[in-house]
Amino acid sequence: MVELRLIAAEDEVEALSETLMDLDALSVSVEDADADTEAEQALFGEPDMPAPKPAWQRSVLKALFGSPTEATEAATRLLAEHPQGVELQGLVEVPDEDWVRLTQSQFAPVPITDAFWIVPTWHEAPPAARTVMRLDPGLAFGTGTHPTTRMCLRWIATHADAFRDQPVLDYGCGSGILAIAARQFGAGETLAVDIDPAAVVSTTQNAQANGVTVQPGLPEAAGEACGRYPLVLANILASPLKLLAPLLAAHLAPGGHLVLAGILERQAEELQAAYAQVGLALAVADQEDGWILMHARRSTQA
Ligand SMILES: C[S@@+](CC[C@H](N)C(=O)[O-])C[C@H]1O[C@@H](n2cnc3c(N)ncnc32)[C@H](O)[C@@H]1O
Q1: What distance in angstroms lies between residue 62's CA and the mean position of ligand 1's atoms?
Q2: ipTM of the assembly?
Q3: pTM reported for the whole predicted model
Q4: Torsion of CA 272, 277, 280, 281, to 10 degrees
């Protein structure tokens, strides 16, 4: 197979992707041409913020074709149809591989503690694993390979007394990995919400695959925030976590635990300032690879 690489301006990307698919590309992916440079841009959408842009200012389009002839023909026609805003970067040969095997080989069992492991379905669980979550990579974030997820899982596995038989809220559930772990470690009714409908589907499937019950839904499913949850987990990113401070704090039961991740070490103080305004004293509870886990406990008087 051959990959055709093009650089395109932001407003050309959608039309070019469609043309490439019309020209029999097997797949088209879009990446930031300025990734890992000063000009790198983040694209994400959050409530009360402008909608995310569909592409980067300078995007790299990578289109996969079955043969060099197909890729060359596609490049020629594409440049004829879109003479402006496109630059040909080149053709790259992609060696034939067993893609399923290659992808699977990148996901090995992940130890969270000595006894708690996240294990893809194509692997045997290690003998030391007493609690096993079966999880395969899918459309939603959360396979246990990211430090932010691992730190949350570690907190869950080592603080089961804080939430045993109690309701838990997983805000920004992705694959549902934290909600499923909370259930495996004894949580009561567990609600898992996400703004991404694909995450809701993924959480439903993953919970079923692990034989636990989780209530997945969009954030509205969490209803009015009325101090119901002894444990609220949110692994998102610093900016949305700051915006969500009043909401997450209001979901916490008196004496409840708030566990936040998706925060870089240098962002600790801004998070502390945002949560101090809603009466919570966040402290760093864990750290891994430049990421931190922050924890606060709501006063029992509230
Ligand atoms: C980093 S992933 C974490 C997934 C999983 N909880 C984990 O720990 O691996 C963050 C998730 O939060 C969701 N998200 C982002 N902003 C959100 C918001 N304002 N409300 C609810 N979910 C949000 C994203 O769609 C994404 O699935």
Answers
A1: 27
A2: 0.99
A3: 0.77
A4: 40
